[in-house]
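If your schedule permits, I should be very grateful for your opinion on a structural question. What I wish to show you is a protein chain and, alongside it, a tokenised description of its three-dimensional fold. Would you kindly read the sequence against the tokens and tell me how you understand this chain to fold? Here, with my thanks, is the record as I have it:

===
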Amino acid sequence: MINIRILLLTVIALLSAHVSYPDTIHGDLVTWHKVTIDFEGPNSSETGDINPFTDSRLDVEFTGPSGQRFSIPGYFAADGNAGESSSESGNIWRVHFCPNVAGTWNYQASFVQGKMIAAELSGGKSADSFDGASGSFKVNDSDKKPGKDFRTQGRLSYVDEHFLQFQRSKAYFLKAGANSPEVFLEYQEFDNTPSKRTYPTHVKD
């Protein structure tokens, strides 16, 4: 008689050996919205022997429904939540992309390592792991958002005019203000920032 428990464990083991989750897609899958892809790669650290910011390079090529291509650089994201956890190590590598048209988008990752390779446009040795990982996702047209949400108007572009122009609506963006506060990076909750600045009056904004 076949031992059912052993049979089930064998089936689970075989399925696990053939199933992998090299990446996770986050975000609203509509045009002009940020799509984030997380790759599970090698464990690294801000203070590691192989510097994840200078000695590794992640590029992800996105191919749109009409064959348009965009090569987007990625980065080391520690545990994937370092903004809250202040983690200095982890195995998450991340890229952000804003698709400009609806349809199916394909992507393929290039993940290489080498001394100061992040500053080079090519070269480097394959870091294995998720190098070559690929996938696809479907994007719908941007939906109308309430309030002053500019994303339905498209990306801002330089068009050799006095003002920036939205790619979709063709409206111009009129900017005013002094870009203050100029010391906004002196925020006490930023890692390794000795500051007493908290900006309590801006929390509601």
